[in-house]
Design a protein that fits this description.
Keywords: Kinase, Transferase. One of its GO terms (molecular function) is ATP binding. This protein is of the alpha+beta class. It is built from ten helices and 13 strands. The strands form two sheets. Strands 5, 6, 7, 8, 9, 10, 11, 12 and 13 form a nine-stranded antiparallel beta sheet that branches. It has a four-stranded parallel beta sheet with strand order 2-1-3-4, sandwiched between helices. A hairpin with a 2-residue loop joins β8 and β9. The chain is elongated and about 60 Å long.
Length: 298
């Protein structure tokens, strides 16, 4: 039999997996897998179980939000041999699942894994010792994702991010940074920046160019410098969400590697979880590093 490690976060997305767990296990067992099941107990638990058992597995499946997926892939990146990956989204936002066009119903997502074909995806390395699946970000609103409690996410879902984001609007502070990549250099006071491999960020698809390829070896980078007036901020928001004319405060480009240097420590977020405070950050794209099982993509 083929060995599977099934890791799930029992609290993600209003704890919806409770009503689907037997159905999911039945689908995997019926496909001939010998299943080792692990319910995460704390932060970092998913990465640890993957590091401990992953080398003996043909397939690792995770169910949870983007943070759980990040932990599983972070653990996989440390294995001698990388198993195939399966993903059953169960979080509040599920940005990367949207990019992969995964089924919303958990049973159908499990069926897509057992019937699917491997699809290689790029993985980001952060400062050489951390990884991210779809986003590394700093600045305005980024703290919302990791400061919003799981209970609040479960109660309010996507609205939780919006409510917490509004609270931080008046506290925007710029970060003076020098940014270097293969084709250019910028030095500005930035209020927000993100390095992504996704078509959806925070549930919004307008923030990223929809022609994104998840296995092309490059990231999409978006940087916003400090606006001078409230009207400038309004124009930035209009550009970001309403696709108006290019804005002088917004920089967009693609790159496979990028380097950030800041005057003081800057908090970073990796796939919705706190990534540490840094004055220097190196980000590199690992092209087609992990293969995920997908059904037919629309």
């Amino acid at each position: 039999m083929k060995n599977m490690l099934f890791v799930f976060n029992p609290r993600s997305g209003r704890e919806q997996i409770k009503g689907h767990l037997m159905e999911i296990l039945d689908i995997f067992s019926g496909a001939g897998y010998d299943i080792h099941v692990h319910a995460t107990q704390k932060q970092g638990d998913a990465a640890e179980i993957v590091r401990r058992l992953g080398n003996r597995m043909h397939l690792i499946v995770c169910s949870g939000g983007d943070g759980t997926l990040n932990e599983v892939i972070s653990g996989m990146m440390e294995l001698k041999r990388t198993p195939l990956l399966g993903y059953i989204p169960a979080g509040s936002t599920n940005d990367f699942a949207s990019s992969l066009k995964l089924p919303r119903q958990m049973g159908k997502a499990a069926e897509a894994i057992v019937k699917g074909k491997p699809f290689p995806i790029d993985i980001g390395t952060f400062c050489g010792d951390r990884h991210f699946v779809y986003i590394a970000a700093f600045g305005a609103f980024t703290e919302v994702s990791y400061q919003t409690s799981q209970d609040k996410k479960n109660r309010l879902g996507h609205q939780a991010y919006m409510l917490e984001g509004l609270k931080s609007l008046s506290a925007i502070r710029p970060c003076h940074m020098r940014v270097e990549w293969e084709e250019g250099t910028l030095e500005e006071d930035f209020v927000f920046g993100m390095v992504t491999n996704t078509v959806s960020v925070g549930g919004f698809k307008g923030l990223v160019n929809q022609s994104v390829a998840l296995n092309d070896g490059v990231f999409e980078v978006l940087l916003i410098r400090m606006p001078r007036t409230p009207a400038d901020l309004s124009n930035i928001v209009s550009y970001m969400f309403l696709k108006e004319q290019p804005n002088e405060y917004v920089y967009k480009f693609k790159t496979s590697a990028i380097h950030f240097v800041s005057d003081g420590e800057v908090d970073w977020v990796l796939d919705g979880e706190f990534g540490g405070s840094r004055t220097q950050v190196d980000i590199t794209n690992k092209k087609e590093r992990v293969s995920i099982l997908l059904g037919k993509r629309a």
